[in-house]
Structure formats: C-alpha cells, structure tokens
Design brief:
Strand order of the largest sheet: 1-2-3-4
Strand content: 5-15%
Radius of gyration: 36 Å
Distance between the termini: 74 Å
Order of helices and strands: HHHHHEEHHHHEEHH
Largest sheet: 4 strands, antiparallel
Number of strands: 4
CATH class: Mainly Alpha
Number of domains: 1
CATH architecture: Up-down Bundle
C-alpha cells in the first residue's frame, strides 16, 4: 500500500471527505419510484371500465357492482376476469421483479475497509476505499431500470387488454351457441311436425315410403343438432368461467347471457383509428421505452470503464501522532475500454429501434384488418337484421294467415317457418362474428370503441 506523506493531517482530509459526501448525497437523490399495481389498475379501468383487485383485498368474490344473481353481462365478465383471473395475477408478479431491479439499480456500493494490525515495529494502519464511479453511473443505472419497469407495466396493461378481448370473444361464443341451440330446437319441432305429416300422407298414399323416411331422418338430425348445440354451449360456459377464475360449481342461479343484440355501429375513419391506436396501445409505448432504456444503457456502458475509488488512509502512530489522508485508486483504461459492452449496448439500441418500427407497422395492420372485418360484418348483419329476416318473418306471417284462410297447406307454413328460422340462424352467426370483430378491433385500438367516437 502506498504510504501517504506524514504532513497530511486529519484536518487536511476533512474537506475532501465533505466533497465526497456531498456527491454521494446528490447521487442518492435520484428517485427509484415506478408505476405500481394501482397505476396499472387505473390504466385498465380507463380503457375497459374495470379495475384490478387491490392488494389489500384477498377475497376472490366478484368486484363491486357485479351481481351474479341477476345473470352475467359481458361488461361484468370482463370485470370479474381482471379481478380474478389466476394467470393474469401471476403475470402481475413480474412487476415486483422490475421494481426490485429498479431498487437494486439505485443502491450504492458499500465501502471496503482494509485493516492492518500492528506487529513489531509496524504501526496500526487502515484504509477505507469506496468506488466513486457510482456517483456518475447510478443516475444512468436508475434511469435504465426505471424505463424497464415502465415497459413491464405497459406489457401488463397489454396482457389485461388481451384478457378482456378473450373474455368478450368467449362471452359472444356462449351467446351464439345458446341462440343456435334454441333455434335448432325450434327447427327440430318444425321437422317433427313435417315428419308426422309425411307419415299421415304415406298412410293415404300421397307420398312414397322414401319421402316419408327422408322426413323422419331430417327430424332426427334436427333433434341431434339441438342437443349438440346445447352441450357445446355448456362447455363454452365452463371455459368462460375458467377465464373468470371461477370454479365450475360457481355457476350463478341464472346464467343469463341474453343481452341486447350487438348493433352495427359506425366507426370513425380508419386512419384516425390507426392514429388512436399508435397513441393508446401499451405495446407501442413499451417499444418506445425500450429505445429510451437502450439509450441509457449505451450511455452507461460508455461510462462504466472508468473505475475510480476514493481512499482514506490512516496510520495509528506516526512521527507526529495519528495520521490520516485521502487518495484515489484508479484503473487505467489502456487495453480494456469496455468495447464489448458498448458494442452490445449499441446493437441493443439498433434492435429496439427496429422493433419499434415493426410494432408500429403491426399495430397499423391489425387496426386496418380488424376495422375492415368489423365494417364488413356490420354491413352484412344490418342487411339481414333490417331486411332479410323481417321479410322472412313477414312471409311466415302471411303463410299462417293463408293457412287459416284455407289457401295454403300446413306443409307450406312449416316450410316458411324453417326458412325464417334459417334466417335467424344466419343472423345469430353474423351477430357473433360482429361481437368477435368488435372485441378484436377494441383490442387493436387499445381501448373501448365508444371512447374513440
């Protein structure tokens, strides 16, 4: 160890120590706060209308405002899922790791104490060493870690939006299957009546055995189809309960999925939707933060090859008594200037920039595709709901009146009813498709469609 000159006294080391302490105090003032669960909850509540369950609440019962006794609406399903979905709760644990990394990035290194005991003519000696490069590296480390924590928070918001989309699609699937099951039951009833009429006509010789048998087969197939739709609806309801984090036996007394049918709603122009998505989507924001974080890490790597430590050296007994003085220990960056670390940080920055461009392109494509599909289905559903189905209903009503007047046979009425029910089936399929398209468009935009109009 290099011995300091004996004329350096304690009072000579006082002012350098004060300077180091002031620099440490300034470096310690860099904040390590970041977004928490409450911030993510507020963001999701603004986008979906449903918050997360607070940490203080451990009861997995439905959130406030949700009552399963009067059935389950789509909005209530989304609220329960964000409150109670086990996988999303597991994803939220990533926020704790990011915040822990941020806290670690803000921690200063501990000083090192070297103590040499007196033995023989050697006096007591100690040296206190502290790596002062933390004073200029810590703010960059904290900035990079904070940006990473922000990126993780935005990724969790994206996970929440994906969960909401999955719940909406699953909910619409249950509505579709239950509607198809009811329509199939009505078709089965009409087919049974046709089969009975065919049997009666067979007995009087109006139809052949082959025609009567074909009618019976259609009746059996309709009954089987109704049963299959009902079983599929039950399975879909169980899958929805799984997304909600509810047990299969937690079915409410009334699992009423029937709401007002999805109406074809006008959407603002596609370019405006793309702009909204690029401003609102959390994955776009996460990609932006990744660029900032990579820039901070590049600056950190460019500065980290300077390794300097402050030293306070003291001797127990000198020619003039107790002696203490400051010093420095520095690594001279002649050969290793952290070339590898800087190159990797530069490559990471370039990758983040390219990923950001790819994310923006993907988001714009998703919005355009989802909006085109939504518009197509909205137009088609409008045609069936406002034109075709009412016409089929009017035809059925006219056939029933003609039958009452004796102008048509019962077979004609049943055929008209089957045509009407088939129209209703097409309407139900299009309504499900529109619900699905709307959920995907809302996820592509990053918020409810109602808030973009």
């Amino acid at each position: 160890m290099m011995r300091l000159p004996q004329h350096i006294r304690v009072e000579n080391a006082f002012f350098p120590c004060l300077i180091v302490l002031a620099m440490v105090s300034g470096a310690s003032c860099v904040s390590t706060a970041s977004r928490g669960r409450e911030d993510i909850s507020a963001d999701l509540h603004e986008r979906t209308g449903a918050p997360l369950r607070p940490d203080s609440v451990t009861d997995p019962l439905p959130p406030e405002g949700v009552d399963l006794q009067d059935g389950l609406s789509q909005r209530e399903a989304v609220a329960i899922a964000l409150w109670n979905n086990p996988q999303f709760e597991a994803d939220l644990a990533d926020l704790g790791f990011a915040r822990a990394e941020l806290a670690q990035a803000g921690a200063l290194q501990n000083p090192f104490l070297a103590l040499f005991f007196p033995l023989g003519p050697k006096q007591l000696e100690f040296a206190l060493t502290w790596p002062v490069q933390d004073l200029w590296l810590r703010p960059r480390r904290v900035a990079a870690a904070r940006l990473n924590a922000e990126s993780v928070a935005d990724s969790l918001v994206e996970n929440g939006l994906n969960l909401a989309e999955g719940v909406k699609v699953a909910y619409a699937g249950v509505v579709r299957l239950r509607s198809l099951a009811r329509l199939a039951a009505d078709v089965g009833e009409a087919e049974r009546e046709l089969a009975d009429l065919a049997d009666a006509r067979l007995r009087v010789g109006d139809v052949s055995e082959l025609e009567a048998e074909a009618s019976r087969i259609r009746s059996l197939r309709s009954s089987d189809e109704a049963q299959r739709w009902e079983l599929q609806a039950t399975a879909a309801a169980q899958s929805l309960l799984s997304l909600l984090g509810l047990e299969p036996d937690a079915l409410p007394p009334r699992f009423d999925m029937d709401e007002e049918p999805v109406q074809p709603s006008p959407v603002e122009d596609r370019a405006a939707l793309v702009r909204t998505a690029l401003a609102a989507r959390p994955d776009v924001r996460a990609a932006e933060l990744a660029i900032e974080s990579a820039g901070e890490r590049l600056g950190l790597e460019r500065s980290s090859y300077w390794k300097i430590s402050a030293i306070v050296d003291a001797n127990g007994e000198g020619s003039e008594g107790f002696e203490m003085g400051p010093g420095i220990w520095a690594e001279i960056p002649v050969f290793n200037r952290n070339q590898g670390g800087r190159a990797m940080a530069q490559a990471e920055l370039e990758r983040a920039i390219r990923r950001y461009a790819a994310v923006r392109n993907r988001v714009a494509t998703e919005v355009r595709d989802a909006d085109a599909k939504h518009s197509e289905l909205a137009e088609s559903l409008g045609a069936w709901r406002d034109g075709i189905v009412p016409s089929l209903e009017a035809t059925l009503t006219g056939a029933e009146r003609s039958f009452d007047a004796g102008d048509l046979s019962q077979i004609d009425v049943l055929n008209a009813r089957l045509m009407y029910l088939d129209g209703r089936r097409q309407e139900a399929e299009l309504s499900y498709g529109l619900s699905q398209a709307k959920a995907r468009l809302e996820n592509a935009v990053g918020q409810d469609l109602d808030s973009t109009r």
